[in-house]
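Query form — protein MFS transporter

QUESTION: What is the three-dimensional structure of this chain?
INPUT:
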Amino acid sequence: MRADAAAERTTAHQRAWGWYDWANSAYVTTTGAVLISPYLTALARADVCPGLESGETCDADLSILGLPVAVGALAPYTITVATILSAVVLLFVGAIADRHPRPVRLLGGLAWTGAAAASLMFFLQGSNWQLGVVLVVVANLCFGASTVVYDALLNRIAHPDDRDKVSSRAWALGYLGGGLLLALNLGLMTAHESLGLSYGMAIRLSLLSAGLWWAGFTLIPVLGLRRIRGTTATPVDRRAGIVGGTLVQLRDTFRELRSYPQTLMFLLAYLFFNDGMQTVIASSSLYGIEQLGFRTEQMMITFLVVQFVAFGGALLFGAVAGRLGAKRTVLGGIVMWTLVVAFAFFVPRGAFTTWLLCAVLIGMVMGGTQALSRSLYSQLVPQGRESEFFSFYQAMERGTSWFGTLAFGLMFQLTGSYRPAILVTILFFVLGGLILTRVRVREGIAAAGNEQPRIV
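ANSWER: The structure tokens for MFS transporter are given below.
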């Protein structure tokens, strides 16, 4: 049985819920998008090419399980491994969350485990890229798992007509928080000499700050949503236990997915266009530093521009969706993504002003597309199975794409250039957009047994 919807769909709950976007965006921005890929690449380069002078290339490969791996492909491959693991683990997390009596406590536990891994990145130095790989996998896995629980709570705290607005505001808050910490870390890295710090120490302190920020601000949603209890809409067989019951539930869910063809169609579309977005986000710092020759500080400025523009972009897309519907607005965002990636391919090496224009365009479209995808999918999820269905969604969400990062890494491995690697993401946007046009949203909402919103 559902808890009283009126008691859960309160302004206080919606505000507390949105703070988790603020909390985890620090890790996504400072660590995931800006620092960890080039830093992990630098650690690996120091291992296989010790004593390499600035500007010199490293032609040696890493050896991982006996396989040769180009130094420049290590970071995208690491994200790929984390995502493949997530694709399995997140399904179990979603099923467990639907059966958990205190889903908000589960959210906190997963978030704080990921934050601990992010904080431990402070100890990465020298040539210790192996520890970095492990910590990135753990942090990304926990990030995805916590977001499964978090996204599913949107159905509990917001009416169908309010979800686009609530989701967009939370995304906007996340971009503001991620941008604020990134600005502080940019100041730290710029002034590291006057503070008596080495450049490496400044990077490590920035990595630490992202983990601590994630952990600290997670307290707000955990405390603010503490009265929300698990739903009993999913039957519990106590004789089967948590593990056995979860396996039974997953088996039943895979069987029942055939009853929700529009939900499946949306997930397939999201698999492609979100993989394109996540690959661009995760690989942009690598592209900017290695291909275009920008410094780390310049990439931090780039992401500051993206973050603060995305704050307004998320709110703008939310307002547009209120008039045109989420599906049409997301499709427009996918078209814009395709054009921006094509533009980025032609940015000349060292042309930082042109690169910043690209950042402004990405910021306009990024937050709104992600926020509205989340709220649109929430309409297609059956009641009582929110976490389980959002686990499918989250397996394809930000920081957990793997088709895109794998294609990006393979393209670099084959060509030795990041330009064709970034261009391959256009294929994901085109396929995702074409499939999304075929999704009949209102039919999917009816099949899931949900209340029809005024506009979709």
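ADDITIONAL NOTE: The longest helix spans residues 11-48.
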